[in-house]
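F.,

This is the one I mentioned.
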């Protein structure tokens, strides 16, 4: 009887072990299937079970399968069997870790090659199909700009806009200028062309269409009716600094063959621009790019700030200065502003246009202009204090519409005084 009891006891234990093994096998299979589902989806997998932590699921699945093996067969293994199994497990773990390391290194090398190629083909292809890459930002400016296909320019106004921005009408032409008019690249006979590069002040932040001082200047000049066609192209973009104005002039300003180029200057022109490209550091150790590819692919795919492999466009409040492309921070210190001004002067001599820096300039910028030999006109010098009401804001970066009207008048007078524009006919 005692032998039968022992046999029944062993059978009961065997059944419990078998049931336990089946349970652990099921748990392990589910965990590993969830990991496979997360890899397939490239992120959170929620078809049946909400799953977002692949590593715990994988380790849990492996542990469950090991428990299933132990209950099914391992409980009867000898010490020699366990040593052999342990050796196989160590080899499998080593092979897996080595494979993951090789895959991580290879992926980083591949991404770096794409980044260094710097072709921006994704962005250019989108432009060709009429689908520019959107900019994701909580700042209102994000709704009216797009990444530029020139990395040094970074961003520019969206073309063909007809919208309300800051409660004011905003229209841009096909080349992204704040103007309802199209300007052909070829010059009209008997014309004078002025191109303006600046930031939000020249752009006309807070004023309506055709109320910015460049538009007012064009209207005033053409009211002369002196037989000359005056064209004033406003290429200003909010958030630009001197470096970006130089690059934008090179990128698309010089093709219009201007006679005069006005660089709109204000107090933040030696700061970083409002939007910058972050360049990914593929040597960083705080993130696994293989992990992101396997388990965060869906998130990365929908990342609208990614304008090309390894480059993301972020606004001033969000970007990490340590990861900003080094050549794009050139406008953020005085020495680099000096260099940008020198390059502007060289470009003006090369292309044959007159160059003027204009705006409420601090003494430090005026000193730089004198040092480099760039003509300038500061509103602090042109407009004596108290000449106009304070609410005109002629010395601030964002004048009101009356302030823009005043700036246009004084800019015209200054250009005439310099001999760059003909004096108006006396009627």
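My design for it:
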């Amino acid at each position: 009887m005692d032998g039968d009891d022992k046999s029944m006891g062993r059978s009961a234990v065997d059944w419990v072990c078998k049931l336990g093994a089946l349970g652990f096998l099921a748990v392990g299979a589910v965990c590993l299937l969830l990991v496979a589902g997360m890899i397939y989806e490239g992120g959170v997998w929620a078809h049946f079970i909400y799953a977002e932590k692949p590593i715990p699921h994988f380790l849990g699945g492996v542990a469950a399968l090991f428990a299933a093996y132990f209950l099914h067969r391992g409980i009867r293994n000898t010490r020699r069997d366990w040593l052999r199994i342990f050796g196989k497990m160590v080899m499998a773990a080593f092979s897996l870790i080595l494979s993951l390391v090789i895959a991580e290194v290879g992926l980083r090398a591949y991404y770096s090659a794409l980044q260094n190629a710097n072709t921006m083909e994704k962005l250019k292809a989108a432009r060709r199909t009429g689908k520019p890459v959107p900019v994701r930002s909580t700042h209102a400016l994000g709704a009216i700009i797009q990444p530029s296909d020139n990395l040094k320019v970074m961003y520019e106004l969206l073309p063909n806009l007809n919208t309300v921005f800051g409660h004011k009408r905003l229209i841009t032409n096909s080349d992204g200028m704040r103007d309802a008019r199209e300007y052909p690249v070829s010059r009209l006979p008997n014309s004078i062309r002025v191109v303006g590069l600046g930031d939000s002040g020249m752009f006309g932040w807070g004023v309506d269409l055709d109320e910015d001082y460049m538009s007012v200047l064009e209207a005033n000049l053409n009211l002369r009716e002196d037989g000359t066609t005056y064209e004033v192209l406003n290429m200003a973009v909010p958030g630009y600094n001197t470096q970006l104005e130089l690059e934008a002039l090179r990128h698309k300003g010089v093709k219009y063959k201007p006679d005069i180029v006005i660089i709109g200057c204000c107090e933040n022109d030696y700061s970083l621009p409002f939007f910058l490209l972050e360049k990914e550091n593929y040597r960083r150790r705080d993130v696994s790019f293989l992990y992101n590819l396997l388990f965060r692919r869906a998130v990365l795919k929908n990342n609208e700030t990614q304008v090309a492999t390894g480059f993301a466009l972020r606004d001033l409040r969000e970007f990490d200065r340590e990861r900003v492309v080094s050549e794009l921070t050139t406008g953020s210190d005085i020495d680099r502003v000096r260099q940008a001004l020198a390059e502007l002067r060289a470009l003006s001599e090369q292309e044959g246009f007159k160059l003027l820096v204009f705006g409420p300039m601090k003494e430090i910028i005026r000193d730089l202009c004198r040092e480099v030999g760039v003509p300038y006109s500061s509103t602090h010098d042109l407009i004596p204090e108290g000449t106009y009401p304070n609410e005109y804001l002629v010395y601030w970066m964002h004048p009101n519409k009356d302030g823009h009207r005043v700036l246009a008048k004084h800019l015209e007078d200054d250009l005439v005084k310099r001999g760059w524009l003909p004096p108006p006919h006396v009627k």
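The CA atoms of residues 104 and 291 lie 9 Å apart.

Talk soon.
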